[in-house]
Amino acid sequence: MDYFVKKKNNTLEDWNPEKIATAVQMSAERIGIVLSEQEIISVINYVQKRVFTRSDNVVPVQMLHSLVEQALLEAAKGC
Predict the structure, then answer these.
(1) How many CA atoms lie within 13 A of 35 on its CB side?
(2) pLDDT, tens digit, 9 for 90 and up, residues 50-77
(3) What pTM, to 2 d.p., does this model score?
(4) Any long-range contacts for 37-41 (C-beta under 8 Å, 24+ apart)?
(5) Residue 31: pLDDT above 70?
(6) Out of 2, 26, 48, 77, which residue is the most buried by the measure of CB atoms under 10 Å away?
(7) How many Å apart are CA 65 and CA 73, to the nearest integer?
(8) Is the separation of the CB atoms in 46 and 65 below 8 Å?
(9) Residue 15: what pLDDT?
């Protein structure tokens, strides 16, 4: 199944894990966390697992932000 991100302006964008990686890195930097490559991959996997088990293949960008934040909080606990 193809997945799409629903942007704030209601346009749909193809699912792109590289954009998730960029969002993870930017969010981590904002809160002062330095992630290894493996930790970034773990966060991406966390997000994708939750997205890909949904019945809906359109994911609001706000949900992605929340999932990234949750994953980063989990990563911070392990530091």
Answers:
(1) 27
(2) 999 999 999 999 999 999 988 888 777 7
(3) 0.83
(4) 39/75
(5) yes
(6) 48
(7) 12
(8) no
(9) 95
